[in-house]
Design brief:
- By secondary structure, the chain is an alpha/beta fold.
- The strands form 3 sheets. The protein has an 8-stranded mixed β-barrel with strand order 8-9-11-12-13-14-15-16, surrounded by 4 helices. It has a 5-stranded mixed β-sheet with strand order 2-3-1-6-7, with helices on both faces.
- Helix 28 links the parallel strand 15 and strand 16.
């Protein structure tokens, strides 16, 4: 409200001054009245600038000092007139010096504005532009003043000549404000700078017309120009205050590849030349027209070239800040928008979206289909944006979204949309995505908020596909723990802390040893035994599962070879292989190399994989088929808990099905688990597959499984995992 009253006062003073000046042009008026509005205009402008400087903007302190000095110059101007030292529009050298000091204070403040650093070439261009403005202003001022110079100057050439200096300095201010507004302003609002340029133009432009008021000593351009200057300054300061109120970020300056002011100077000077030559000889006029035309053509050509360069730079800037495939902003742009939103709105969230099993689409259907899917997903995400939201592609199949307001509701809408079939080329694809969401906290940076969303996304991955997880502090603890585990696991691989235990797979009903499954164990030198359920997820997440799996495969095969000639020892060994290993090109060749190096026959090795690892086909299924081609047996582990599909039994080259413990636990009841277990053995028999029941813990379970048709079982009832040296001839018959 105070700002509104201030602007009203400043505007009213301008109206009063303008009306009184217009009356003075028609007939003589009392000189004192023209100077009175200045006594109020200058303090009002100075106070408004001080209010703007309270926002922490140093420039406005300089602006306040500058307008006060200009006001003191106006006081000196009035003193010169009323004391009889000067007449009319003439000013003394001291008064001109005070005016110039005010302009210098404003320019110094402008130079204190932080902005982009300039190279030497840029400074040279800036200097040439200023020189262009100086020459143009001097040319116009000379043309206006010269015809009346001898009459108007009189005996005070120094004082009146200083008006030229004031005018030139004022227009340099104008140019500097506009130039800085074009190239970057730091904390000063761009529109406020444009208003400041208008302030300088109003203040300096009128000085050139002082000679035109010769004969009207009671008038002075300052009477109307200084109140108008103060009004423009108040409006600029008001714009600055409003732009920074509430901590909102200032709008970024609009990049411009071309400053039009030098070209405007060329055009204006050419027009002045033609106007001056029109009253001279025809020959001089023709030469002037030709010179101006050539100059304008050269300037036009330069402007066309600069605009073309500007367009090219805009294209390059867009390419550098946006994803080429989807057209979405990249990480750099997103981080900038997150930073701006954090400064403006407290209720900000970031979601990280990672498409599940995207690699399988690329492998099975080709990269063209995969790219089409990425574009379709990007379009779907962009279509769900609310006001102030943003989406970016971070790379690969990973997207990030800046969300304001109710992020959970927006994510629910996005997840539902992603579950709908996506058109990618000639294919209708169903997309699943793991989504992590992090809400902003006080003091957050954009990087920190994105990091927490990333942690939540990995937590969603760990919980299964198509999950949404909101970040909590405990996730960081788990993430840090997994990072420590991964580091220790890397050391364990190199220092022999790992060993294998072997769990028997027996025949039913007699309990004879048929094979063993190799299971990795880790005894940490400080923490003691670490369960596989703790360190295997860390190995999966960090990629250490690949070298770990390779070590397990080599060690197990070497041990199986040692058992080959031992009576009663197992002749077949099973090794678990992760989905990450199967996605590694050449894994089948690695298996072949291990068999060749250890001398283990391919029929003595069984590779166990989960349904999830091969459900989506692609590279994993190709590698598995290549392994089966070596003569190695393939077992589907934990069958029934993943993406169970009878079609998988036809596409996957499996010859062993391992029924998950969750179905075996209640096999002795008449519940659904017993029905599933019974149905599965019938399917296996029909397809010629061997079935192994996992997790057998009681004699009753073993007997029921045998009754249903199972001939192989594994579990604590028969034996726990033991070191290689403790493997013997197991015989644990089922009680009749």
């Amino acid at each position: 409200m105070r700002l509104t009253r201030t602007l009203g006062v400043a505007g009213g003073l301008v109206v009063v001054a303008a009306v009184w000046f217009a009356i003075g042009l028609a007939r003589p008026t009392p000189p004192i009245v023209g100077w009175l509005p200045l006594l109020v205009s200058v303090p009002v402008a100075a106070v408004t600038c001080r209010r703007a400087s309270a926002q922490g903007r140093t420039y406005w302190r300089y602006a306040a000092v500058g307008i006060v000095l200009i006001g003191l110059g106006a006081v000196g101007n009035a003193y010169d007139y009323f004391s009889g030292n000067q007449t009319g529009q003439r000013i003394s050298g001291l008064t001109a010096s005070i005016y110039i000091a005010g302009l210098v204070a404003i320019i110094l403040g402008l130079l204190r504005i932080p902005g982009a650093r300039r190279t030497r070439i840029e400074w040279a261009r800036f200097g040439l532009d200023i020189a262009t403005v100086i020459v143009t202003v001097l040319t116009f001022a000379w043309h206006l003043m010269f015809p009346r110079w001898s009459d108007w100057v009189g005996e005070n050439g120094a004082g009146t000549g200083s008006i030229l200096v004031v005018v030139v300095a004022g227009f340099i201010c104008v140019f500097a404000f506009v130039k800085v507004a074009f190239t970057g302003t730091g904390p000063i609002d761009r529109r406020a700078l444009h208003l400041l340029a208008l302030t300088g133009a109003v203040g300096a432009g009128g000085g050139a017309f002082a000679p035109l008021l010769e004969g009207k000593d009671y008038l002075n351009p300052v009477h109307v120009l200084l109140p108008a200057t103060c009004l423009c300054l108040c409006v600029a300061a008001d714009r600055q205050i409003r732009a920074t109120r509430g901590g909102r970020p200032l709008p970024r300056p609009v990049p411009r590849g071309l400053s039009v002011m030098p070209y405007a100077a060329v055009l204006a000077t050419g027009g002045l030349l033609l106007f001056a030559a029109s009253s001279r000889t025809v020959d001089l006029l023709a030469v002037s027209i030709g010179s101006v035309t050539v100059t304008l053509l050269v300037a036009a050509r330069q402007m066309v070239a600069l605009r073309d360069n500007s367009r090219l730079l805009s294209v390059l800037d867009h390419q550098a800040s946006h994803d080429a495939l989807t057209g979405l902003p990249n990480r750099t742009v997103l981080l900038r928008r997150i930073s701006a939103s954090l400064a403006e709105f407290p209720d900000v969230s970031v979601a990280l979206i990672d498409l599940d099993d995207f690699k399988a689409i690329n492998d099975d259907l080709g990269h063209a289909v995969g790219d089409a899917m990425l574009v379709a997903v990007a379009s779907s995400l962009a279509g769900r944006l609310g006001p102030g939201d943003a989406v970016a592609r971070l790379g690969g199949d990973e997207y990030a979204m800046l969300l304001r307001g109710d992020a959970a509701a927006t994510l629910a809408s996005i997840a539902a949309r992603l579950r709908e079939p996506v058109r990618a080329g000639a294919h209708e694809l169903v997309v699943e995505a793991s989504i992590g969401l992090a809400a902003a906290r006080a003091g957050d940076t954009a990087d920190e908020l994105l990091r927490r969303a990333d942690v939540a996304m990995y937590e969603a991955k760990a919980q299964g596909k198509g999950r949404q997880v909101v970040y909590v502090d405990a996730m960081d603890q788990r993430s840090a723990e997994q990072a420590r585990l991964a580091a220790d696991l890397r050391i364990a691989l190199d220092t022999g802390q790992l060993h294998l235990a072997y769990q028997p797979i027996v025949r039913l009903p007699g309990g004879e040893l048929a094979a063993v499954e190799a299971l990795v164990r880790w005894t940490h030198p400080v923490r003691g035994p670490i369960p596989p359920g703790v360190f295997i997820p860390a190995a999966e997440r960090t990629g250490l599962i690949v070298p770990l799996g390779a070590w397990i495969l080599r060690t197990a095969c070497a041990q199986a070879v040692q058992w080959r000639d031992v009576p009663g020892a197992p002749q077949k060994i099973s090794v678990n292989v992760s989905a990450r290993q199967l996605r590694e090109a050449g894994f089948a060749a690695e298996v072949a190399a291990v068999l060749r190096q250890t001398g283990l026959p391919s029929a003595g090795l069984t590779v166990e994989v989960t349904e999830t690892a091969v459900f989506d086909g692609g590279q994993a299924l190709d590698e598995l088929r290549a392994i089966a081609g070596l003569g190695v047996h393939i077992a589907l582990d934990d069958f029934g808990t993943g993406h169970s599909s009878l079609g998988l039994l036809r596409t996957c080259p499996a010859d062993i099905i391992k029924i998950d413990k969750s179905f075996v636990d209640d096999v002795t009841t008449d519940g659904q688990e017993a029905v599933v277990v019974s149905a599965l053995i019938q399917i296996c028999d029909g397809l010629g597959l061997h079935a192994v029941a996992e997790g057998v813990e009681t004699a009753e379970q073993a007997a029921e499984l045998h009754r249903l048709g199972y001939r192989f079982a594994q579990g604590y009832y028969f034996a726990r995992p033991v070191p290689a040296a403790e493997i013997g001839f197991y015989r644990h018959p089922i009680a009749a």
